[in-house]
């Protein structure tokens, strides 16, 4: 027996979700965007079907998709936390540099450090 259209679409969604995990792990953000676009198109196609069109096997696939989606969300959140931490560190460094610039750059005449040379 041939798989139904819903099964074919869900299996493709699962395949894309597995590649999504790889893209996140490898920090391939362009590939991740492409995969998300493809999944969005599949979602639109699946919306044409009613609940009765989905088999028990489809429901198992949906459960698997939910699990891998949660995993991908966790992976992506972890990467976002790393980036946010880097941004905060850079912001602190910039603020410190600005303070130093205001303190030593506002001296009249020769630089404060010039007197030590």
Would you kindly provide a written description of the structure presented here, covering whatever features stand out?
With 117 residues, the protein is mainly alpha-helical. The chain has one domain (5-100): Methane Monooxygenase Hydroxylase, Chain G, domain 1 (Up-down Bundle). The chain is built from three helices and no strands. The chain is rod-shaped, with a radius of gyration of 26 Å. 9% of the residues are buried.
Whole-number mean pLDDT: 89
Characterize the overall form.
rod-shaped
Structural class: mainly alpha
Question: Would you state the CATH class?
Answer: Mainly Alpha
What labels would you give this structure?
mainly alpha, Methane Monooxygenase Hydroxylase, Chain G, domain 1, 117 residues, 76% helix
Short description:
This protein has 117 residues and is mostly helical.
Task: Break the fold down into its secondary structure elements and pairings.
Blueprint: H1 5-25, H2 29-46, H3 56-105
């Amino acid at each position: 027996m041939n798989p139904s259209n819903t099964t074919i679409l869900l299996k493709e969604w699962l395949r894309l979700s597995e590649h999504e995990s790889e893209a996140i792990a490898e920090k391939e953000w362009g590939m991740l965007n492409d995969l998300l676009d493809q999944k969005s198109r599949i979602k639109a196609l699946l919306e044409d079907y009613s609940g009765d069109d989905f088999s028990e096997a489809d429901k198992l696939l949906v459960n698997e998709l939910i699990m891998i989606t949660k995993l991908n969300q966790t992976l992506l959140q972890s990467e976002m936390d790393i980036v946010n931490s880097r941004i905060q560190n850079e912001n602190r460094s910039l603020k410190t540099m600005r303070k130093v610039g205001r303190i030593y750059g506002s001296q009249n005449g020769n630089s404060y450090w010039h007197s030590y040379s």
